[in-house]
Amino acid sequence: MATESTLRFGAQTDEVTSLLRIVNMVRSGDAATRPAIGRVTGLGRGVVTQRVDQAIQIGFIEDAEFGPSSGGRAPRTLRFRADRGRIIVCALGALHIHVGVAMLEGDIIDEKHRAWDIARGPADTLDAALEMIDELLAATPDVPVWGVSVGIPGPVDFATGRPVAPPIMPGWNGFDIRRRFEERYDAPVWVDNDVNLLALTERSRRREEHLDLIYCKVGSGIGAGLLSQGHIHRGANGAAGDIGHVRVAGSTSLCRCGKTGCLEAVAGGWALVRDAEAAIADGAGGKLASGAEPITPESIARAAESGDALAISLIQKCARVIGESIAALVNMFNPERIVIGGAVVGAGEVFLAEVRQRVYELSLPLATRDLSIVQSINDRREPLRGGAEMVREQLFDVTFPRWFADGRPSRERVHPEELVAG
């Protein structure tokens, strides 16, 4: 049986490895009884009993109801104790704060949402987010927080949790977001780009373990989350998928990042609004020009779907340019599915048809042979679900050996590099 010392210091003996595997098998539903664990792992009955008993003693799993009998005595099923901890999810957008709480199985059990301009800076923004989270946590005050996810609309150094020169987030460059949440909730924290969390939502929804997918979000800005064989591809420093600031040939539009000709400055949500207002000032008519509602990326998308000529021309121009950028990713990355989300999805096939045409025109035939390009369901909870999925992955697939013996994660075990840096 694994000793306390080997577990405590994360020594990867065969005993520890098999113990961790059994807990994760029960958690994921790959095996729910002791006989099933033996069949999947090849471990003997006595060894399985020892490992399961230890996992029960530490508090990760428990005996549940009896399962169906295959002729003999019915086996007792095992259940992961998902109620032992909570996951906090905070999704910061350009113009909103969205927070939620999940139990360890990942389902969002409560949430709050409010309008907010992220340009107000990190101090005010995080104070508002923490206040909203505290209100949610008050409903279950006796359940400890096991992990926190924070999604932001900008580039993130995933290793440190700090934004790096985010174009629409003045004052956030290098800000230690992780520390604010760690100090408040005494739990490990991960900060990531919001589009990566949306890609993880798709993985969770489709339950495909080895999914190759691009999630492209076209909102105020433009970004892509890349799933390679089911894992987020962040690149060396977390910048993978930041297509919003790829140069568009021939464009002279000034971007919010200070450069000229970025994809976002041509086809982002704020660029759509800019071009719509300029066209109306030049005398364009139609639904957008009527003044019935403010001109936003969402209202432009809705107007395009309802047949407004100006809105359709703007959406199609946006889709063509974005399709060209996605085609470059398709040739390099060869995904099986592209999901388009964000404000423009309200335009439906007006947008998607143009993207598909450009992608198929500009990509290699082999890369598009089995490719599907679909619209996101555009559920407001998507980034919350993705955030919970990211925390579960980091806790149980990445850092589990570091904290397993303690019975619950701690920031010291999960992020030991912070102790060295401090």
UniProtKB/TrEMBL annotation:
Record SUPFAM superfamilies: Actin-like ATPase domain (SSF53067), Winged helix' DNA-binding domain (SSF46785)
InterPro entries: ATPase_NBD, ROK, ROK_cs, WH-like_DNA-bd_sf, WH_DNA-bd_sf
Cross-referenced Gene3D superfamilies: 3.30.420.40, Winged helix-like DNA-binding domain superfamily/Winged helix DNA-binding domain (1.10.10.10)
Family: Belongs to the ROK (NagC/XylR) family.
Protein name: N-acetylglucosamine repressor
Organism of origin: Microbacterium lemovicicum
